[in-house]
Amino acid sequence: MIKNSSHKKFYSLKRQPLVLLIFSSVAFLLILLRLIFLQLLNYESFKKMSDENRIRLISSQPIRGRILDKNGYVLADSRVKYSLILKPQSVKETYWEKHKSSISDLLNLDSNEIQKEYFDGKKNQKLSVTILDNLNVDQLIKFKENEDKLFSFEIATKLIRNYPYKSLAAHVIGYTQPITEKEYKFLSKKGYKLNDLIGRTGIEYVYEDFIRGEWGGEMVEVNSLGKFQRSLGIKPSTQGNDIELTIDMNLQLVAEKVLLGKKAGAIIVMDPRDGAIRAMASKPTFDLNFFSKDFKPEDEYNKLFNSSEKPLFNRALNAYDPGSVWKIVTALAGLESGKFPIDTMLETKPCITYGSQCFREHNDLGFGVIGYEDALRVSSNTFFYQVGYGVGVDQIYDISRKLGFNSLSGIEISEQENMGLVANSQWAKDGRGWGEPGRTPWVPEDIASMSIGQFVVQVTPIQIARAYAAIANGGFLVTPYLTKKDGQSLLDKKRIPIDVDPKNIQLIKSGLRKVVESGTGVSINYGVTNLPPVSGKTGTAEDGEGGSDHAWFVCFTPSENSELLVVAFAQNTPGGGSVHALPMAREILKVWNQNK
Length: 596
Prior knowledge:
Number of domains: 2
CATH architecture of the largest domain: 3-Layer(aba) Sandwich
Number of strands: 25
Distance between the termini: 126 Å
Shape: elongated
CATH class of the largest domain: Alpha Beta
CATH topology of the largest domain: Beta-lactamase
Number of helices: 21
Helix content: 25-40%
Strand content: 15-25%
Oligomer: single chain
């Protein structure tokens, strides 16, 4: 037994060098493979990681492009905010106390707060820390006068969006806000930085890529401890493109002014020849500079976002009952159907019964036997009840579609736009948007209401502008637009000839001229001298949601070869379109005529 045990022990000792050799060889091979992996196969990746550990980028914010009116007035630009910063790692500690006291005395700052920021920056190896945010002019001048003694400190600039005219054209221009962390996850691939600004509404949103610019910055080298070593170069930021609007500041100012006395409403001023928007105002409105504040007071925030008045709501692109300004649609439906041709004469009455209701004439008397032109001139309800009932809902619907209703207008800021509603028989069969299919049929009362623009018709001021522009320009449906570049629209403009007999359009046009000459719109000429001939239509609409009546007035001038079209809308302002909406349009025509 002893002999055998000794033999095994001897054999084991003899194998040890071989095992050690194999183990060493395997270890060496693994190390070699790892080196090959690091140095050859994954070289670029690790080089990038090394550079990222060694190199830091101090970003430089781009200047966002300006937004201008058609004459070059600045509606939105960027304002510089100045901050006092310290680069704690570049400060020599022997000089720190002296520099801290100097800046504290110069700008009347708490030295303890400065010390706190300094130690925090040193401890967390920050390249820069902010000592004072948003310096005023006096502080900035004092610093610049003593800058050579305060080389531990610097002035950093931050660009914030600035709107010189505050609430002017607020719904058109729109506003910017910092991006959120959630958005940053995918926007970082497009070059955005955390808390970078991005357009949220209006032109700021639609043309974000065009006006935002590109970030630049300074590349600095740091050592293994993260301490600053040297600057490796600066790449300037690229300024965003300016954008020119079709808006005319003079007309925009008066559009905003005439709305001041109204509870709510909208004004649209447009060139009916091509759809260029000269003014678009909505009330209530808001100060765009609110969104540029670092701190937003709670009462201001609630007034903007939680108010029942909804100031962020663009009423120029929202849908309402149109009332009598809709009658041109019913008139064209009658003419185009052939059932009520150009020479039609109908007897108007105090009221006409449809279904279980007697639908009244607005003067409770009637206007005798009249044709289309006089029906528009006096805005007869019973004339258009007869025409509408005679042609039927689907004929009115088809004409309305040709005039651009029940669809988006094509304007750039379509994120704010409501498509509205023009009912038809299929809509009723399908449940009217709230009922069960087959249980909400079309009834006689519907067609009477529809004929004069009530209840089953909801349209936007911009849709009304398009429809009346088609009458003014002789039969072309235009696409409203707000932006220009090098004198041309940034939008792909479209002038679509509408499939309507030109003779019928001319008849409507003649009726609208009579409205202003001797009808419900005659007061448009009061107090105005040398105004070219105007054509137009008044409208008073019951609010389908139960509020007070709406007031409308639409006009274009000159009556032939028209250059300007105005839609004036006063929401829940009882008293009639000729009383409340027409005077707003008159003030706009005055300014336009004076400037012209």
